[in-house]
Structures are given as C-alpha cells and as structure tokens.
Amino acid sequence: MNDLMNFLQDDHDEDIDSDPQDCWKVMVIDDEQSVHDVTRYMLKRFIFMDKGVELIGAYSSKEAELILEKERGIALMLVDVVMETDDAGLRLIKWYRDASINPCTRIVLRTGQPGQAPEQNIIMEYDLHDYKTKTELTSDKLYTTIISGLRAYHDMYRLEQTKVGLENIIKSTSMIMRVQSMYDYAKAVLQQIGNIFDIRSRGIVCAYRSNDSEWQILAECGSVTVHTSDIISIFNSIGASGEYSSEGCLASMLYQSDLNRYAVYLETNEPLSEIQSRMLLLFCHNVSVGLSNIRLYDGLIKANRVTVMSLAQVTESRDHSTGEHVFRMARAVELLTSKIIEKGLYMDELSDDIISAISLASTLHDIGKITIADSVLLKPGKLTDEEFEQIKLHTVNGANVLDEILRGSNENIKYLDIGKDIALCHHERWDGRGYPLKLGGRNIPIAARITSVVDVFDALTHARCYKPPFETTEAKGIIAEGVGTAFDPLIAELFLNEVVNAIIAEEKRAPGAALR
C-alpha cells in the first residue's frame, strides 16, 4: 500500500466539479480509505475524450450492490478482492455480470493479496478487463489502466449502441411496412424514431406533389422551433438522397421522384451522437422503400375505390331517388366503425386496419338489386307479399354476385369478402327475425350489424320513390325503438349518441361529397 501512496504530493487544490451527464462514471470498491483518497486525487483533473470523471465510492460489496442496482451508467469499476470476506470482490463481479446491469462496464480487479486470487484462474473465470496487484499501481500504471478501461468501455458502448440501434431499426421498419395509408405511415415514422433512439423528438413529415406545387404536412410530432417556411427551404436545398444536420436537428429526403417528394425534419432535446445520427439516416433510407410501396398501394386502393363506387352507383342509378346514398353510406360506416374501435367494443371482431375495408364494402350492400325487376324495385306504392319476397332475394343474389367475383380472382380481396357478408346479412335483426338466414345477435357479421344501422337511418332521412324524407328527430326515434331488437344495442346506442350529429354536420357542409 505504501508504494501506492508514493505519488501523493502536497496539493490542496479543490476537486474540479463536472456535470455527471458529461462525465465518465468510475466506481472504486475497496474497504481501505487510502485507496479511495489516492484514486480521487489521481482523477481530480483527469480528462479523456473531453470528459471528466465522476468518482463513486463503496467500502463493501454489499454497499456496492445497492449503488449498482440504481446506477446503470458505470464505465469502469476498480474492485478489491478481499473486503468483508476473502472473496467479496469476486462474488460482486459474478453478481454484476449475471445481472447484466451494463455489459459494457469494464472491471479492473485489484488485490493486495495475490495468493488469495491467483491471476490465471481469475482471468479465465471472470469477465475482467484487467487484473492488478495494489503494489503495481503506481501513478503511471493507474493512469494507464484507467485510460485503457475507459477506451474499452467507449468502444463497447458504441458497438452496443450500434447493435441495439440496428435491431430496433429492423423491428420498427417491419412494423411501419404493415401500415397501408400514407398519413398513417408518416405518423408511424415519427413515432418509431423516438422508440428506436429513446429520444424525445419533435418533427414533421412533409410531401411535395408537382400538381400542387407546394409542400404539405402529412404528420407532426410535438412543436418544432423552426418556422415551416425555413424547414421547406431546407427540404428544397437537399437532393434526392440528401440530408441536412446541425446541432439538435436533422432533415432527410425520404423519397423523391419526378412528381413527388417526401421529407422528414427532426429536432431533439439533446444533440444526437454520431452513432445516433448515422442510425437515424439509415432508418430514413429504409423507410423510403416503404414510401414507394405505400404510393403503389394508394394507387391500387384508389383504383379499387373508383371501381367499387362505380359498381355501386350502377345499382343505385336504377332508382334516381337514392342519389348519393353509397357515398353517404361509406362515410357514415367509416365514422361508426372508427368510434366502435375507439371505445374498445368488439375488439375480437374489429381492428384499425379494417376500417377502410368495411367502409368501402358497405357501398355494395344493395348490389343484389341489379337482379330485381324495375316494376318491383321502383314501385311507388306498397309491395305485395309476393313482391316483397322478390325484394328479399337481393340479399342472397348480392352475396352470390360478389362470391363469383371473388372466385374469379386469385387474390384474397378483403373488402369484397366483407362486402359479401354485408350484402347477405344487412337485413338480419339482432332478435333473429330478419332475413334471409334469420341470424341473431353476434352470429350476424359485425360489418353487417354496423351497415344495417347506417342504412336504415340514411333511408329514413332521404327521399325514396315510396316516401318523403323523415325529420332527423323522428328517424333517431325509430332507430332508438329498434335498439336490442332490430339493431345491435351497443352499436345503435353509439350511433345515436356520438355519430349521428357528425354525419348531419358533414352533410350540411358538403352535401353528397363524402368519399368522392
């Protein structure tokens, strides 16, 4: 121990304080006060990679365990072997490694009794950075040992960050690729950036379309400090695969073609490390592939929507009084389905990614009417029993039409499959007294239970060849009378309480324009 004290000189300067966030955390675990004093004196002006040292002391393995359970950022530990027991230090090291508190932490074992812990045995059995006898640790040797340990920690920490970052990028990219809406995709990109890098970030994703000749915000997270016009200037200044970065902010072009551009701008509360910046750019390059796929998917969905709407309108056009019925149906069903999911109802039958499919499929509910004669379908007066039986056939006939389309396709087209359920079952009743199958309760497909409420309300509040429109209050009263008999009680109550007013408001703002 005297050799270790030899480099102590008379120096009464105050210790230099350093911000723990900008320091290397070094822990001394030894039951001799002089070891702590020497190490503290040695490190008080220590700087490595522009960072000072925060020294943490413990005088027994038990005290060290309590500290280490809370303190996860230790870069280097200097551990004595013999403390409260002859092998207390070894037991502490084994506990720390087995607990996987911080696999990057470098551990230097120090002992004043080498025979108590033979070097060859110890270095083979324990995950150590170095093994030193206390008589070896002169001033220069201690300094070298600490530099070596911190450099090893720095390198391992960078590798661990890279490994974790790459794993998170792979997971997050996979999750984002499941999103099938451009707006949802943009939101997912911002959300996953925070998850990957464990940072609190603010940002926006913007799109530029040549036919609009301006940038539009697709998604936002938090409030960025830079004015939107300045962000757009940054986007305009970087190329197809370009990027821009300064302290605390980063911009990257996610996708660029002759007609479209997509870019992301981010701000973080703390400056990004070099590894984080590289990982973030790698993530942005990965999601650019997904953006291309989303654009293709959007185009396909739009083409499908136009086709389905046209098909539905062909059916409705036979009755001029139905007008914009299919457009109103699609929007109202979308609102109602979204509200059901928001309230957590029927989550075993519904999910977020099915909302648009049910909305589109609902427009096909009456497709079977193309098989009904005009003399019956357009009859202004009351139907005879025989005519009503013919009308009822539109449910089965509609399902058969969609089934033929499905069988002629090699793809599993979700909205057509749902449309078949809706066409067949939208006149079933909750009490089992509907048609054509007399299903009841949850045996009726949920898409049909949703559509039936909307269909009846829309039919009541708009003119038909056989009746004038009902007032909204009267229509709501009729729906209310059918709660638990004609309609699913949970869905109908939700429709009346939280959806009807939104439908009416949209209709007043832009009559008949929904989902065009």
Characterization of the model:
The structure is a single chain. The chain has a five-stranded parallel sheet, with helices on both faces. A five-stranded antiparallel sheet has the order 7-6-10-9-8. It is built from 17 helices and ten strands. The protein has 516 residues and is of the alpha/beta class. The radius of gyration is 35 Å and the shape is elongated. Mean pLDDT is 78; it is low at 1-21 and 512-516.
In short:
With 516 residues, the protein is α/β, with parallel strands linked by helices. It has helices spanning 2-5, 33-43, 61-70, 88-99, 119-125, 139-177, 182-197, 228-237, 274-316, 325-342, 355-362, 374-377, 385-407, 414-425, 446-461, 472-481, 489-509, and strands at residues 23-29, 52-58, 76-80, 106-111, 130-133, 201-209, 214-221, 243-246, 249-256, 260-268.
